[in-house]
Amino acid sequence: MDWSKDFVGRKALLEKKRQGTRNRIVSIILSDKRAIPLGNEPVVADGKIVGRTTSAAFGFRIGAPVALANIADPEARRTGAGVVIDIAGTRFQGRVVAGATFDPQGHRMRSVSGVQ
After folding, report:
1. 98 partner at 20 to 30 Å CA-CA among 6, 18, 71, 75?
2. CATH classification at residue 28
3. Is 40 left (phi over 0), alpha (psi -120 to 50) or beta?
């Protein structure tokens, strides 16, 4: 987007940019491998709903379910924050991760026996 040019909605977007956002997308890694989040599940922290998942899948590189969530509460979106995702009435523990949610050293992709 070229902010130096005039376009429809520019004034409103500049105001929004000045105010900053109230929410962020974060990654949540779930502790229970049996959890199957699909998206649009509530995310709970300290007993209150702080956001919703937007999408999810099983992260084969990390061996756990991973969800993306839109979180409004700054405390609930900090790295390492414990949250709960409610999937069809069953609550699953998770933790917020900032940055990459993959196995950067490739430990899961390498043989356990050391054979390459």
Report:
1. 18
2. 2.40.30.110
3. left
Categorise residue 103: left if φ over 0, alpha if ψ from -120 to 50, beta otherwise.
beta
* Pairing of β 64-71 and β 24-30: antiparallel
The pLDDT tens digits for 64-82 are: 999 999 998 989 989 999 9
pTM tops 0.90:
no
Does the residue 55 lie in any domain? yes
Contact assessment for residue 10 and residue 31, using Cβ atoms and an 8 Å cutoff: no
Residue 89 placed within a domain = yes
Q: Among 43-47, 60-64, 83-87, 90-94, where is mean pLDDT lowest?
A: 60-64
Structural domain boundaries, residue 73 = 20-99
